[in-house]
Design goal:
The complex is a heterotrimer. Chain A contains 13 helices and two strands. By secondary structure, chain A is mainly α. In chain A, helix 6 packs across helix 7 (180-190). Chain A starts with a helix and ends in an 18-residue tail after the last helix. The longest helix of chain A has 27 residues, at 202-228. By secondary structure, chain B is mainly α. Chain B contains eleven helices and two strands; from the N terminus they run H-H-H-H-E-E-H-H-H-H-H-H-H. Chain B has helices at 5-36, 43-65, 74-95, 105-127, 153-175, 177-187, 189-194, 199-221, 231-246, 251-271, 278-290, and strands spanning 143-145, 150-152. Chain B has a two-stranded antiparallel ribbon with strand order 1-2. The termini of chain B are far apart. Chain C is built from 15 helices and 15 strands. Chain C has a six-stranded mixed β-sheet with strand order 2-3-1-4-5-6, sandwiched between helices. A four-stranded parallel β-sheet of chain C has the order 8-7-9-10, with helices on both faces. A three-stranded antiparallel β-sheet of chain C has the order 11-14-15. In chain C, helix 2 crosses helix 11 and helix 12 (307-326) crosses helix 13. The two termini of chain C are 28 Å apart. Mean pLDDT of chain C is 88; it is low at 1-23.
Chain lengths: 333, 300, 406
Amino acid sequence: MSTTFKIFLALCAAALVVPFVPGLIYPVFVMKVMCYGLFACAFNLLLGFTGLVSFAHAAFLGSAGYVTGALMIRFGAHPLGMPAALAAGVAAAALVGFAIGGLAIRRRGIYFAMITLALSQIVYFLAVQFRWTGGEDGLQGIPRGSLLGLDLSSDTTMYYVTLALFAAGFLFVDRVVHSPFGQILQAVRDNEARATSLGYDTGRFKLIAFVLSAGVAGYAGALKALVFQLVSLNDVSLHTSTEVVLMTLLGGVGTIFGPLVGAALVVGLQNYLATIGDLVTVVIGLIFIVCVSFFRRGFVGEFLHLRRRRAERATRRPALRPEPETAPAAEPA
Amino acid sequence: MDITFQGFMAQLTIGLIGGCFYAMLSMGLAIIFGLLNIINFTHGAQFMMAAFLAWIGLTQLGPWLGYPDFQINFWVALVLAPLCVALFGMAIERSLLRRLYHLDHLYGLLLTFGVALVMEGGFRYAFGVSGQGYEPPEILQGPVDVGFMLLPKYRVFVVFASLLICFATWYLFERTKLGAYLRAGTENPRLLQAFGINVPVMITLTYGFGVALAGIAGVLAAPIMQVTPLMGGSLLNIVFAVVVIGGLGSILGSMMTGLALGLIEGLTKVVYPEASTVVVFVIMALALLVRPAGLFGREV
Amino acid sequence: MRSRFIGSLLGASLASLTLPALAADAVSDGVVKVGILNDLSGIYSDFTGRGSAAAAQIAIDEMGGKVLGAPVELIAADHQNKPDIAANLAREWFDQGKVDMIADFPTSSTALAVMEIAKQKNRVTMLSAAVAMAAITDKCSPLNAQWMTDTYALAAGTAKALLKTGRKTWYFVTADYTFGHSLEKDAASVVEAEGGKVLGVSRHPFPGGDFSSFMLKAQASGAQVIALANAGSDTINAVKQAAEYGIGRTDKQVIAPLLMYITDVKSLGLAKAQDMYLTEAFYWDYDDRSRAFAEKFFAKMKRMPSASQAAVYSATLNYLKAIQAAGTDEAGAVMAKLRSMTIDDAVIRNGHLRADGALVHDMLLLQVKKPSESKRDWDFYNVRAVLKGEDVFPKPSDACPLNAKG
């Protein structure tokens, strides 16, 4: 059993207990962290392991949320409604991901990021225009339906179902990263020219990674729509896209658990800042600046770095070469 | 479409005015990107800051200092505000951005994004969100008859002023020795260093110049748009698309694309106004399909 | 949930039988807690924000800080205009924070999200800033009150008043989203019903930067009224740029913003905003009672209350009065009491709360003063008419199931 898996089991075990001690941590808060954690994992799959920066991830989160929500409102009562709507949401996100990714991978580096940003604006525009998305009112009162005969309208049942779905999503991302396919992605990230010279069609791999990432982001969005029973324009906004960058950065780019830690921190921060008000934007901005300037490894990355250092010192073997930056090298400068 | 020729020309002119702002902003982005390899997300906030500085100079500074009659007028602000914003930008470059040059572009982008958030939030905290009015100087108030429409004098001024600035910038970068150095700096900074040129200082000054362009645009925009902390943010998204279409490699390209998209946006407002913002993004998608490197760009 | 409900019912019946000293038992958790959920940091913070919490505090203080012997507490938070943050906070407040009622909500998406949760958790919502029609039509809730106004009342008020002055031809400049469409549709229906004519519509993206193109089209249409079916910075920029082109400055053609807050007028300045007609639920300088409230508010916030902030005051005050009268803070009982009361305070006049949650009350038709008429800061409007609630608020909609059984 790998360390990753052990840590993950420990986390899940801790999460299992949460509904029994509602005074300690509010279960709905934990569900929110799980949704955003998955969202950040999806983003990290692209940024951390493929070296692509997307500013369109809200478009995937939101479009899946809208599709799942709209379907649940119509067919939520059907016993298979919930899994079908969830699957449809993921499919929608993957489709949007295919369209955006297909265009964006025509350019690299900074252009790639800006193209995703611009294309996500089109998705936002459509979400305002379409009638079925409810415009700026959004969708509310989305029924949670039932899964395998379990009625999900109770928060506690939903909590455990969310935990299970979250675990499945997380392990899927972990599986992708550690598969041969994931290795190729990391090779593309580290040196695209070399990967090409080895005979890999890097464009195709990037596109598959993009669609996968979009699909997982959509999975998070569909789940979020069910948990909160609402979807709104905020879910497709640029703001949400930058939030997921912050989560990943704060937790640790290219680490398995970083996005989860980052999501917990950002979601917690939002809740905390809600009561102090006024300066939310400034505080978030300062965190960005500090993170980028002095704390690029993020919490998990920094932790791993320290541990590795200590291990190296213990074996008294001098490092052969300087620590590689956790920074993804999207392309040689 | 029941629109007269005069009406058509009027809409086109209005589009051109919008295009002037796109052109100035995207040129600034292109200049900064050329030398620093950074997408300056702070551009919108710097545009906003200059507009605010102009407003503060005109209406607030006097009372603050205890001389209610003291004003910094539009013309002085047009020079001073961009200068202040440029100095502020250069301070950021020296203290924060500089540390990131050896890293991926992403980090520069995120840093400037963070700075933009802090600036927007700060101005919002200090001055609220509803915004402030700024009057154009007296000499430019009132309309002028340009044949097919009554155009406010101030808008005519904006068109000429921004075209002049764009042309001067292009000349500076493409036709002078200084420009040659700058372009050389983007190709091979080490070699330039060998010629005895202090490249780090040049980078700082270039950043300052790009930011100053945003600042000039901001002061020019103050009498047209309400001065609010959010005035730059929404504009910047469009300018990014402009830059992708034109390609970041070319100053002339970014200027021409900016003007062209202003016109296209103006025309869209006649035909299908709902889509007048999103049309820029659609054109971007189309341009990418046809010419992935950007209309005037070269692959980086 | 059920045990709480029965408990409070028991409490209620006990309270009505026994001495007031026992009344605190009638209040769940021993405290009445009012939550203010709005925008403290974003684009709606000027007309809601901290001022809303201050207004609620004034209402609580006027009630002596206590109701039925239980203390009244206030909690405020910034939903950052994100429905999921609003929903999260509301759930937490209801489940663990002992909150009984939440008010304000400057965006429709946050309002509708929290209304849904409040319905599930049997608590009250009072929309003092949200004006979306959905809240009193297809998304209506028995535990919700739309305390300030709705888009129909705003649009219909201004439209009727202008039609009466003989301005029959209209052109709409509309923000292209539900809110803008709703304002436009409601105003247009009034215009057409009263023999007027809509000459054209320009729908602009939201947010729009340069409005000169739309305003010129509107001018060229020759319409007597250019109605702005948008809000906030869009309205401000449209008026400002119209002034730049000299549009809407003559008696032949006027500009009518369908939603404009006093903070918007402050931002525009009287020179640009002068002479425009608009409809509001509240203006601080209306009479002695409104002025008395406004001065209290001014002492706290150094500015005059917006209609939304004033509505928070009125909502909180009447909510607490209804608890007092009902002898319980159980949501259903309080709402029933609110529906049976006549609402009349410093802010809301001749009000009664309908089954669908619409608070029907007198609205004010205002005209922006000329700079020369204004004697002090915030002295912005001449009150041109008091519009009877029955004339301007929408008829109960069939889309709301609560209207059906009547």
